[in-house]
């Protein structure tokens, strides 16, 4: 018998080296994969915190009179009686708080509507909710119907419920999300036309009010306006917490949601009611601030695409606050001493940003599907 020929020593060493190199490369890839979620986990909170801090300092410091950033804390906490102190504490701080609260409400409402209708384009402005709330508040004021200021949120809620309910009933109680969106666009256009009719009927003083309810503005808002929002937020916050898990189930579709015990039509109506209570009080104070409800949920999904509605909801509120606070700085300062509506700046920033986010999300889904197909072919 012939004895087996031993393999060359160099070949063994090369094979061992290749195996070791492959093992080292796999370990490095695994280590990078473990580190990347940690980096992504901190990326969103860090970016939100930085944007909120910078925009807040700019909102309180810039303008006439100018207050240096290092003096802001003393001016606010000590109650400075100078002109700068009065302007900061009585005008700029309540305006900043209103921007944060309004943006958070609109961002959360946008996510609720998009998840309930399973359509990333479902926003308050496209469903008749914002226009209905604006019309409910503006109509009595232009028609010289004297009502107390405490009734304005109720008028806004009634108008928003009318606009949203008309959209759902006209679309067949929300059986088709695409039909709801198309019908809502028609209802919103009709309500905007009614606001334009009021503009023709209004005098010069009322025209400023109509502009606010057409575009949205934070101008001349005080602590009384901010205080009027808190009762509604206390009512809607528990409902919003209970609504988030149901929204995660509704993403599966009406049939699968029914199989899991969720009645899709009732859940959709409940989601609309929650969105109405979020949007209407804000609209009663500062008008419909456009595109916040569209942009904030997309930003929340961008940083956590694999999460669900429960995790997206607080980040949608945070991004909504960021969008309104950042947009209010140029709205107040770009054409000083004339202020421009903050809704015009949110639309100006939101349209290109929304297009970029939707396109990048589409490319990401296409890239994942192509990579998945390649991997499957390799296994086969």
From TrEMBL:
Annotated Gene Ontology cellular components are:
plasma membrane
Q: Which CDD domains match?
A: TM_ABC_iron-siderophores_like
GO molecular-function term, one example from the UniProt record: transmembrane transporter activity
- Region (Disordered) residue ranges read 1-37
The record lists the membrane-crossing segments as: 42-62, 96-114, 126-147, 153-173, 180-202, 229-249, 269-294
Residues folding into a coiled coil are: none
Spell out the Gene3D superfamilies in the cross-references: ABC transporter involved in vitamin B12 uptake, BtuC
Q: Keyword set for this entry?
A: Cell membrane, Membrane, Transmembrane, Transmembrane helix, Transport
Membrane topology designation: Multi-pass membrane protein
One Pfam family per UniProt: FecCD
Q: Name one GO biological process term.
A: siderophore-iron import into cell
- Give residue spans, biased composition: Low complexity: 15-28
Q: What's the main place this protein lives?
A: membrane
Q: Which InterPro entries match?
A: ABC_BtuC-like, ABC_transptr_permease_BtuC
Superkingdom in the source lineage: Bacteria
Q: Decide whether keyword Ribosomal protein is in the record.
A: no
- Subcellular compartments: Cell membrane
Of which family is this protein a member? Answer: Belongs to the binding-protein-dependent transport system permease family. FecCD subfamily.
PANTHER family associated with the record = FE(3+) DICITRATE TRANSPORT SYSTEM PERMEASE PROTEIN FECD-RELATED (PTHR30472:SF37), FERRIC ENTEROBACTIN TRANSPORT SYSTEM PERMEASE PROTEIN (PTHR30472)
- Which protein are we looking at? Iron complex transport system permease protein
**Source species of the chain:** Streptomyces pini
């Amino acid at each position: 018998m012939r004895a087996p020929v031993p393999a060359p020593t160099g070949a063994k060493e090369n094979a061992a080296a290749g195996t070791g190199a492959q093992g080292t490369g796999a370990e490095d890839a695994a280590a990078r994969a473990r580190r990347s979620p940690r980096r992504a986990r901190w990326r969103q909170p860090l970016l939100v915190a930085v944007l909120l801090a910078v925009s807040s300092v700019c909102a309180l410091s810039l303008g006439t009179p100018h207050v240096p950033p290092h003096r802001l804390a003393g001016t606010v906490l000590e109650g400075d009686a100078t002109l700068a102190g009065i302007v900061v504490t009585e005008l700029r701080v309540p305006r900043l708080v209103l921007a944060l609260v309004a943006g958070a409400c609109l961002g959360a409402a946008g996510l609720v509507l998009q998840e309930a209708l399973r359509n990333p384009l479902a926003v308050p402005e496209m469903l008749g909710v914002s226009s209905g709330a604006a019309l409910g508040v503006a109509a009595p004021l232009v028609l010289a119907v004297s009502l107390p200021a405490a009734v304005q949120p109720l008028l806004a809620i009634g108008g928003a419920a009318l606009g949203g309910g008309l959209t759902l009933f006209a679309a067949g109680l929300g059986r088709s999300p695409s039909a709801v969106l198309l019908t809502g666009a028609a209802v919103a256009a009709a309500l905007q036309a009614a606001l334009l009719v009021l503009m023709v009927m209004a005098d010069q003083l009322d025209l400023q009010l109509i502009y606010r309810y057409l575009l949205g503005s934070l101008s001349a808002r005080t602590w009384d306006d901010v205080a009027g929002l808190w009762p509604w937020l206390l009512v809607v916050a528990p409902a919003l917490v209970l609504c988030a898990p149901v929204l995660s189930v509704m993403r599966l579709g009406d049939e699968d949601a029914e199989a899991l015990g969720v009645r899709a039509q009732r859940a959709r109506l409940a989601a609309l009611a929650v969105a109405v209570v979020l949007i209407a009080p804000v609209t009663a104070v500062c008008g419909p601030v456009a595109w916040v409800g569209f942009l904030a949920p997309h930003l929340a999904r961008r940083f956590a695409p694999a999460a669900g509605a429960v995790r997206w909801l607080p980040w949608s509120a945070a991004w909504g606050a960021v969008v309104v606070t950042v947009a209010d700085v140029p709205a107040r300062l770009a054409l000083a001493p004339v202020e421009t509506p903050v809704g015009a700046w949110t639309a100006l920033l939101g349209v290109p940003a929304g297009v970029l986010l939707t396109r990048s999300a589409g490319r990401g889904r296409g890239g994942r599907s192509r990579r998945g197909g390649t991997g499957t072919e390799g296994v086969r």
